[in-house]
Amino acid sequence: MYRLAAFDMDGTLLTPDHRVGSETLAVLKQLVERDMIVTFATGRHYLDAQPIMAQLGLQGYLITGNGTRVYDNRGQQLHATDLPADIAEEVLHTHWRTEASMHVFRDEGWITEFAVPDEMLRAHHLSGFRFQLAELRRLPAFGNSKVCFIAPHEALLALQLQLQAHLGDRADLCFSAYECLEVLPLGCNKGTALDMLSRHLGITMADCMAFGDAMNDKEMLATVGHGVVMGNALPQLKSLLPRLPVIGHCEQQAVAHYLQHWLRSPYLTYSPEL
């Protein structure tokens, strides 16, 4: 019997309109009643993810910023990792040949140079989380947890090559979504963060189950006792984790349906008909 369930948010727990369905909320509360430790593991900022968890009436653990921050169920920060100052300075001060917009995440919030389109803000309607405008080159080199680039996927693929040429193996690059490329501290991801959290809780990764849909979920899904891939997951994720079960689409609240069956029969293996 697993003791912790970790959930990616966008594309996994949330529907495409960035809401939590009634079936999903009901099954999350069932997990809590069964003494399962519920954890949200997301690329979102703490100031974005925590209000959503609070609105759901859950007091769970949070892994935010794709593993750069970890919080306990009272909101106390357990772990923080930032980009090394030289990496942050290089990313912020280099004139990248790209149409991508740059977004910097620090404990105080989400910082960018130009107003973000309303379409992008819809993802944050539950929390009211908003960007702050600032000249990114004037930001301190310290205290930057991650840098995100937003653009069409083809443009990000070209940018990825530039970043790799500049940074080499000094930082990690990850597609947290099809149109979002992130620069993260080396070795920092949801998997390493969940491992740290599980050890803090006195359990192992084998005691954990996890659900995800994007490349920022890869390490977490690959190292827990039971990883589950969404049907709407990026094809690259499915191909890299071929042995993991693939369930339905987040639009149909597939996580809820899967867990409803699992709660009834926790020792049965996954069936494609679920």
UniProtKB/TrEMBL annotation:
<dbReference type="InterPro" id="IPR000150">
    <property type="entry name" value="Cof"/>
</dbReference>
<dbReference type="InterPro" id="IPR006379">
    <property type="entry name" value="HAD-SF_hydro_IIB"/>
</dbReference>
<dbReference type="GO" id="GO:0016791">
    <property type="term" value="F:phosphatase activity"/>
</dbReference>
<dbReference type="GO" id="GO:0016818">
    <property type="term" value="F:hydrolase activity, acting on acid anhydrides, in phosphorus-containing anhydrides"/>
</dbReference>
<feature type="binding site">
    <location>
        <position position="10"/>
    </location>
    <ligand>
        <name>Mg(2+)</name>
    </ligand>
</feature>
<feature type="binding site">
    <location>
        <position position="213"/>
    </location>
    <ligand>
        <name>Mg(2+)</name>
    </ligand>
</feature>
<keyword id="KW-0479">Metal-binding</keyword>
<keyword id="KW-0460">Magnesium</keyword>
<comment type="similarity">
    <text>Belongs to the HAD-like hydrolase superfamily. Cof family.</text>
</comment>
<dbReference type="Pfam" id="PF08282">
    <property type="entry name" value="Hydrolase_3"/>
</dbReference>
<keyword id="KW-0378">Hydrolase</keyword>
<feature type="binding site">
    <location>
        <position position="8"/>
    </location>
    <ligand>
        <name>Mg(2+)</name>
    </ligand>
</feature>
<comment type="function">
    <text>Catalyzes the hydrolysis of 4-amino-2-methyl-5-hydroxymethylpyrimidine pyrophosphate (HMP-PP) to 4-amino-2-methyl-5-hydroxymethylpyrimidine phosphate (HMP-P).</text>
</comment>
<dbReference type="GO" id="GO:0000287">
    <property type="term" value="F:magnesium ion binding"/>
</dbReference>
<protein>
    <recommendedName>
        <fullName>HMP-PP phosphatase</fullName>
        <ecNumber>3.6.1.-</ecNumber>
    </recommendedName>
</protein>
<dbReference type="InterPro" id="IPR036412">
    <property type="entry name" value="HAD-like_sf"/>
</dbReference>
<feature type="active site" description="Nucleophile">
    <location>
        <position position="8"/>
    </location>
</feature>
<dbReference type="InterPro" id="IPR023938">
    <property type="entry name" value="HMP-PP_phosphatase"/>
</dbReference>
<dbReference type="InterPro" id="IPR023214">
    <property type="entry name" value="HAD_sf"/>
</dbReference>
